[in-house]
Design a protein that fits this description.
The chain is mainly α and 81 residues long. The chain folds into two domains: 47 residues; 34 residues, no CATH class. It is built from three helices and no strands. 0% of the residues are buried.
C-alpha cells in the first residue's frame, strides 16, 4: 500500500511539473512577443505617413536654420502652394 502512495505522489508531482513548465513556457513566449512589439514601435519602423514632415515644414526649418534666404524661401513656398 505504501508503494502505491509513493507512485501516486510521484505521478502527481510529475504532472504538476509538466503543467508548470507549460505555464512558464507560455509566459516566456508572450513576454518575448510583447518585447518584440514594443521594440518595433520604439524603432519607428511602424510609423506611417502621418509622422513624416510635410515639404512646407522642411522648407520652414531650412529657412529657420539659415540654409536658404528669404527670397528663395518665398519662391519655393509659392511653388509648393
Amino acid at each position: 500500500m505504501n508503494r502505491r502512495r509513493e507512485t501516486l505522489c510521484d505521478e502527481s508531482t510529475m504532472e504538476l511539473g509538466k503543467r508548470l513548465m507549460m505555464f512558464f513556457g507560455l509566459l516566456l513566449t508572450i513576454g518575448i512577443a510583447v518585447l518584440a512589439v514594443w521594440l518595433f514601435r520604439q524603432s519607428g519602423a511602424g510609423r506611417g505617413r502621418d509622422s513624416e514632415e510635410t515639404p512646407l515644414e522642411i522648407l520652414e526649418k531650412r529657412y529657420a536654420k539659415g540654409e536658404i534666404d528669404k527670397q528663395e524661401f518665398e519662391q519655393k513656398r509659392r511653388d509648393l502652394m
